[in-house]
Write a structure and sequence with these properties.
The protein is an alpha+beta fold. It is built from 5 helices and 2 strands; from the N terminus they run ααααββα. It comes from Streptomyces cellulosae.
Length: 105
């Protein structure tokens, strides 16, 4: 009998990203661990690259490709720094970014 994972969301994520490179899988799993399925990660690319032990340019390029493929989505910017969370391709569900303000009319 197969043992069931105590973390079914991470097991499902692992299945959705299994065809990606190891670097991209590591990046997505890092976002999943630090931010869960719904929260952004408030760390810079350099901090995350150091955390997983890869050069920052490699991390940034892979993260850009993951964003283009909808595995990651930008939650907000502070100056030139962009922050991300898991996107629809990673979570398997539509992700809605909360509005920070209301339109006036």
């Amino acid at each position: 009998m197969a043992r069931q994972s105590p973390y079914p969301e991470l097991a499902a994520l692992k299945g959705r990203i299994s065809d990606l490179s190891h670097l991209k899988q590591n990046i997505l799993m890092t976002y999943a661990v630090l931010g869960g399925l719904e929260h952004g990660v408030e760390r810079t690319a350099a901090e995350l690259a150091e955390l997983i032990g890869v050069p920052a340019p490699h991390f940034s390029r892979a993260r850009r490709e993951l964003e283009d493929a909808k595995y990651l989505e930008c939650t907000h910017k502070e100056g030139q720094v962009r922050f991300f969370r898991l996107g629809e391709a990673a979570t398997g569900r539509s992700v809605v970014v909360a509005l920070t303000g209301r339109p006036t009319g």
